[in-house]
Design brief:
Strand content: 15-25%
Number of strands: 11
CATH class: Alpha Beta
Distance between the termini: 20 Å
Mean pLDDT: 94
Structural class: alpha/beta
Low-confidence stretches: none
């Protein structure tokens, strides 16, 4: 089975640097399976830093996106290094490259692609490209809420929801700006709906849930499916 993972940059890249211990833990979970994985790594702290610095120098949003994407490539290279031979040694340049790479290795890791789209969208496009019907979104949020749980104490978490519901929520929060955080961007939501990709949202801090999601088992996060 092929599985796509959108690995939040905040999980592997923090202000103090790369979290090699966390990368090792994700590697150990993947090693327990016989599945094939297409992983897209986000930018995390470095992407926000690069985008901010670019804007301060007068960059437009396209250029800020380019700066943030550079951070995702740095993080992808770190994951490849941390996986110690488990992943394909070269980061795919694009989705066609990824489709060929996964024929040579059961794990491929890449960063972002073009300005204007997020790594959530990249991961969904990768899932479509390699034929993955399950996408695991690993971030610092433990699921999908009806409103921002950091701002509203009465925010309700969904155990399950439809693709249509996800699209509606994403439309409310997607600002199309590099370095911003939102549940799952509108394009990624629509792409997962058109290909009926089952999307699992779990907290990267809960490795038990991460492993359950990868196996397609019940977990404490949110599952999106029709």
């Amino acid at each position: 089975m092929r599985i796509a993972i959108s690995l939040g940059g905040s999980m592997v890249n923090k202000e103090e640097g790369t979290d090699w211990n966390y990368i090792e833990k994700i590697k150990e979970i993947i090693e327990k399976t016989d599945d094939e994985f297409g992983i897209v790594v986000g930018g995390g702290y470095t992407a926000r830093k690069y985008a901010k610095e670019a804007r301060e120098k007068g960059a437009n949003e396209f250029e800020a996106d380019e700066s943030a994407i550079a951070a995702t490539h740095e993080n992808a290279e770190a994951v490849i290094k941390g996986f110690k031979g488990l992943a394909y040694s070269k980061e795919p340049k694009d989705f066609k490259d990824a489709r060929e790479a996964i024929k040579k290795s059961r794990v491929i890791v890449m960063g972002g692609t073009i300005p204007g789209i997020t790594t959530d969208t990249d991961a969904t496009l990768l899932a479509e490209c390699i034929g993955a019907k399950r996408l695991i979104n690993i971030s610092n949020v433990d699921g999908i809420y009806d409103k921002n749980p950091r701002e509203f104490k009465d925010a309700k978490k969904y155990d399950e929801m439809t693709h249509e519901q996800l699209v509606e929520l994403a439309a409310e929060s997607d600002k199309r700006m590099a370095g911003t955080n939102f549940v799952f961007d509108i394009l990624a939501s629509k792409l997962s709906a058109r290909s009926n990709i089952e999307v699992h949202f779990v907290s990267g801090k809960n490795l038990f849930d991460v492993e359950k999601a990868i196996k397609g088992e019940k977990h404490g996060g949110t599952v999106v499916k029709d």
